[in-house]
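User: Sorry, folds how?
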Amino acid sequence: MEWGTLGVAAVGAFFGIGATVITDALRSRREKDQRWADTKRLVYARFLTALAQAHSRMVIVVARGEADGVRRQAVHDAFHLDPQHSDAKSVLRELGLVAPDHVYRVALPLYEQLRRVRDTLASEVMSIETPEYRQVTIPFFQQMEALQRLMRDDLRPSSRRSGGTGLEPGRSTPHG
């Protein structure tokens, strides 16, 4: 065997092994990124679901028309006791672990707004038809929509993101 042939075979093997290693590394990175995106998607969906379900449970309690003391306790129970064991506060903590800071900074005031909805519904002589309820619920749903857009943008591949702020053009904050 000639040295030239042996050298060409060695160079070819070197390039072949190198290409395989690079391809495997890129595939591994892509799979890791996909698992992380799947984890975030799951937590994002759980958080939005926990908020919506807590709100729905509280509205159902108020619609029953129970006496003030009983209603107050029932509203608080509806807020805290999720039958699927994924109450909003617990999932908020999960969100704090997996979400980027800009997403978490929008989620936290949304959770606080849901607490204001809870406190409003738990107060005396309150119903879902009152202006006080609408004053706390409208911002809740607006903030929830803004957070959902921000989460959706965060889950897009970086080449397709709208800039990472989750803000619509002309808006200075996610809620107003």
